[in-house]
């Protein structure tokens, strides 16, 4: 259950630090971007540290679950780096939002099946935490990567 809390801390702490440290809007936005990078670095590393438990989160009918977890870990680490690159930030942000939507059914399956990974063992009640967390991640990504980037280009 500590994973969602840790993810929220990683997401918001850089932004809070920049809010206190500076009045410059571009640095405050940078804090929000760094938060996204930290979350995806954390979750990407998790794919290599907790490969088997994450593979069990997917329905058994899905082939190559272990390999999918590893590839998605590489993808999340790449996204963590790419959000720090100003040029493609909007597109990367849109990709992250789509990825978060696509991954939600896996979290629903894991919670319904009570897979002992993270809080999923709590069962469907865990979705009361996980779904809002996904929505926060999507909203944060939109605000700091998609909308902010479009505003910077205008």
Describe this structure in words.
The chain crosses the membrane at residues 6-23, 30-48, 68-85, 92-112, 124-145. The structure is a single chain. The protein is mainly alpha-helical. It has one domain (2-153). It is 79% helix and 0% strand. The chain has six helices and no strands. α2 runs antiparallel to α4 (65-82), α3 (51-57) crosses α4 (65-82) and α5 packs antiparallel against α6 (127-153). The longest helix has 27 residues, at 127-153. The mean pLDDT is 92.
Question: Could you give a quick summary of the protein structure above?
Answer:
The protein is an all-alpha fold and 154 residues long. It has six helices and no strands. It comes from Kolteria novifilia.
């Amino acid at each position: 259950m500590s994973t969602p809390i840790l993810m929220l801390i990683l997401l918001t702490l850089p932004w809070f630090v920049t809010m206190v440290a500076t009045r410059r809007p571009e640095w405050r936005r940078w804090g929000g971007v760094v938060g996204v990078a930290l979350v995806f670095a954390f979750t990407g590393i998790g794919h290599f540290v907790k490969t088997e438990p994450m593979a069990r989160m997917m329905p058994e009918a899905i082939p190559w679950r272990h390999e999918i977890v590893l590839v998605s870990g590489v993808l999340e680490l790449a996204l963590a780096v790419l959000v720090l690159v100003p040029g493609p930030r909007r597109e990367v942000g849109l990709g992250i939002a789509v990825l978060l939507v696509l991954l939600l059914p896996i979290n629903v399956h894991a919670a319904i099946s009570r897979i002992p990974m993270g809080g999923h063992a709590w069962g469907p009640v865990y979705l009361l935490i996980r779904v809002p967390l996904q929505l926060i991640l999507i909203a944060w990504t939109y605000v700091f990567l998609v909308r902010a980037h479009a505003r910077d280009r205008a």
